[in-house]
Amino acid sequence: MAKSSSSHHQDAIKGLWKSVVPHRVEIFAWLAILGKINTRLKLANIGIIPINEAQCILCGLCPEDCSHLLIHCPLSWQLWCWWLNLWGIQWSLPSNLRDTFNQWAHPHHGAFFKKVWLASFFIIIWTIWKERNNRIFQNSSMSLPQLQDLVLLRLSWWIKGWEDPFPYSPVDVVRSPACLQWTTPRSREATATNPPPLPSWCPPPTMVLKWNVDASFNPILQKSAIGGVLQDSLGHFKCMFSSPIPLMEINAAEVFAIHRAIKISLSCFQIQDHSLIIESDSANAVKWCTNKKGGPWNLNFVLNFIRNASGNDSHISITHRGRASNNVADALAKQGLCRDDDFLAWL
Ligand SMILES: [Zn+2]
Where in this chain does the record put each RNase H type-1 domain (predicted)? Predict the structure, then answer.
């Protein structure tokens, strides 16, 4: 018997609100499953954009409706296949998102991996949607490997919001996704000997955003890299970057990390007017940036830019805090050592 559309809604909603990802992402998935997101085809059909602009921005081949964009577009499809291949799964994706969600199950039985699996559905469609928006509104695009890294990074960050004492860092997850098959230690002894590290990150005041930046140096590879993460007062991730830079002394690299955070902030109209705190774990870098002069002469150009941007009447302040508060930035900086190109993502 054909199901009524309200029972379809019930099916779709069931199992959706498990808080494995931020609420805004659950809401997006819910709207997408119900076909209520504003795709270009939908906007064209109601006359908001011309019909000749209804093409999918990712491939330019088909009209952008929900199923095409989030499942069948070649780029999206490759992202789904990459995730399924990671776990040795062959699956022909259903024709629409609702069936995809309802059939989204994995035979691996661990309770933790079940949550990973559920979260991956949300994260893949969210990552496709954010990429689509970046291409339309920011005129910037990522490659498939970058999107794959982003799926793993979002997953490993959002795992931090769960109660599980998952012991791996975002970098570990990106390097070897197999660590997601971790199982919860059952005995109290096991949890007692491996207490989860306590986050010592200190949130900024309401209406203020905070960058944590860090630099990394690998003497064997002879490489330097910088990384940073922007969060609001609730700890929500807003933006992150991870970039290789020319080989340089670590305090100088920290100055470049601060410089990059400011550049990104000033170039984004959504946060241009926010007050910003930039936190670095290098006391030297912070001292050079906040003093009117001093610091290595060869950094003068960069330091002057930072001093101008964070001067007396500016909404940007630069502070020093210990390494313990900087886990994510540290991980992104280390990840930059393995990159050939800049990585920047708005979440
Ligand atoms: Zn497409």
Answer: 212-335
